[in-house]
């Protein structure tokens, strides 16, 4: 499976000081599946009239699993919201293939991009099955009922199908909302901290789901606080460093101790298990 990203920090964003232009090309492997490329041209999110980062220029190929990491409040959710065109103001251009994503009619855009937000609110009285079907209907899936059934199984929550949303635990809500996004079945899938409420078993399941979606040729973008998950699940990382700057590239390159310390102020070491899994441990220095 090919995956890749090209990242370029361009000049400073409007109303954002600093940020020398740098170019970080990362060659993607051959793309074996057909699908559009998501292209960010000097793109970024605004909050309160302020650009949250220097402009980002990225080319995400089908199969890319991009982890967006960085300290609290740096602008990960805002960037994801801007990428999903879900009401967060943005600057620059955002194209899927040849199509301007923000300019698409929302109903058509819902067939291209889906979002699992941090805020998991939904009407309490809604049955889980109905909520997941909303995802399938959003992308005008021709077999919404079947898509919902299959997404519930993929998220491992078939047994919750008849429950009222308001009766679910926090982790169950996150898995059900994940199922809603899976039922939407879009080529671009955006997850905002998808494991924040999940136990170890389900964290691993979500990691596997992210990798599977990438292997299916989708573009997956996930804001993550768990840097070990980012190391194992992602093909590429975008680190927002808190000073308006960013670093993009392969996980082990971007999550190296110097860059992590500069962004988070924490010393870390990357370890590898005998089974080849990486984990990032904090050091008491
Ligand atoms: N609705 C909003 N209106 C105005 N400012 C906002 C809004 N939401 C977030 N912000 C501000 O935008 C900045 C970025 O917030 P954002 O939620 O994107 O960060 P984040 O990196 O996702 O944070 P966290 O890791 O804590 O979830 C913060 O300074 C935050 O206070």
UniProtKB/TrEMBL annotation:
GO MF terms held by the record: ATP binding
Keywords: ATP-binding, Nucleotide-binding
Organism lineage: Bacteria, Bacillati, Actinomycetota, Actinomycetes, Micrococcales
Designated name of the protein: ABC transporter ATP-binding protein
Gene3D superfamilies per record: P-loop containing nucleotide triphosphate hydrolases
InterPro entries assigned to the protein according to its UniProt record, in alphabetical order: AAA+_ATPase, ABC_transporter-like_ATP-bd, ABC_transporter-like_CS, P-loop_NTPase
Domain ABC transporter as annotated: residue spans: 38-267
Annotated region (Disordered), positions in chain: 1-22
The organism's place on the tree of life at top rank: Bacteria
Cited PROSITE patterns: ABC_TRANSPORTER_1, ABC_TRANSPORTER_2
SMART domains in the record: AAA (SM00382)
